[in-house]
Amino acid sequence: MGLFKSKSDESWKINYIREFNEMRSEYEKKLLAKQAEIDDLKKQIEEIKSFKSNLRPKEKQIKDSDIDSIKELRNQGLSYRQISQKTSWSKATICRVLNGLYD
User: Would residue 103 count as lying in a domain?
Assistant: First the structure.
């Protein structure tokens, strides 16, 4: 009887180890899949960051003489649209000039 008991103990241990190894193998597969997903997302973030850094605003392209003439035309009573037509600068740029963005 002692021999039978030890044989069933061995069988139980072998099954337990087999199931444990299968379970560990499944978890490792899931972990590897998640790590691959994380690596892919990190790569996408870096691509977005590099793209975003290329979208820096342009340096000031308007000359001081243009700024002075825009302010002078406004002092003469011209509208933003009229100044835009005379100087070929956009109304948005004229607005920025007159609001002191380039001062």
Answer: no
Q: What is the pTM of this model?
A: 0.43
As a whole number of angstroms, the distance between CA 97 and CA 100 comes to: 5
Residues contacting 70, CB < 8 A, separation 6+: 83, 87, 89, 94, 97, 98
Domain residue limits at 10: 1-56
The pair of structure tokens assigned to 34 is 């998640």
- Total of domains in the chain: 2
pLDDT along the chain (103 residues), means of 10: 59 90 95 96 88 63 90 95 93 92 81
